[in-house]
Amino acid sequence: MRILGIDPGLRNMGWGVIDATGAKMRFVANGVIRSEGDDLAARLCALHAGLTQVLTEFAPQSAAVEQTFVNKDGASTLKLGQARGIALLVPAQFGLRVAEYAPNKVKKTVVGVGHADKAQIKHMVRMQLPAADVTNADAADALAIAICHAHHHKYDRIVLARTGS
Q1: Theoretical Cys-Cys bridge with 63: which of 4, 17, 21, 43, CB 3.0 to 4.6 Å?
Q2: Residue 163: pLDDT band by 50, 70, 90 thresholds?
Q3: Mind telling me the catalytic residues?
Q4: Residue 100, Cβ neighbours under 10 Å: how many?
């Protein structure tokens, strides 16, 4: 299964694509979609266009997005939520179901601890996907989200098969 992981951000939206077959994962591509300027609508359009291009080029079969944590700055949280809306919308426009994972669940799945720092995430992504370019933290986080989805989606399918759902 080809999985797209998305790390939502208004200025920098990280994305990563992996192929997962059973327990094996293979790096496909990753990058960052950037938006600039003060015009929020134009920035959201740029994110939409960039993510649409990623889905068109790599044709994932599944997508996963990191859930938003609420911080003290309400305005920043709302803006991040709008970027997250684009991250949910574009895969849905391509007919994909979009899974959502809390940041701590991604970290625990990829690193083994729920409060891992960026360096630990990059290191473990590099260990699991040796061909990946993890120099950009947003792209590395997106690959971590894709890895998390590969693990949890696999277990969800097993549970559904056993329960007959």
Answers
A1: 4
A2: very low
A3: 7, 66, 138
A4: 16
Question: At a CB cut-off of 8 Å and minimum separation 6, what does 95 contact?
Answer: none
This prediction's pTM: 0.90
Tally Cβ neighbours within 10 Å of residue 53. 12
- 66-70, long-range: CB within 8 Å, 24+ apart, which pairs? 66/6, 66/7, 66/8, 66/100, 66/101, 66/102, 66/103, 66/106, 66/141, 66/145, 67/100, 67/101, 67/102, 67/103, 68/8, 69/102, 69/103
pLDDT band at residue 70 under the 50/70/90 scheme:
low
Decide: residue 19, CB within 10 A, 0-12 exposed, 13-18 middle, 19+ buried: middle
Rounded to whole angstroms, the Cα distance separating 109 from 112 reads 6
* 18-57 pLDDT per residue, tens: 999 988 999 999 999 999 999 999 999 999 999 999 999 9
- Contact predicate 45/118, CB 8 Å: no
Beta strands in 79-155 (DSSP E): 98-101
In one-letter notation, the amino acid at residue 77 is T
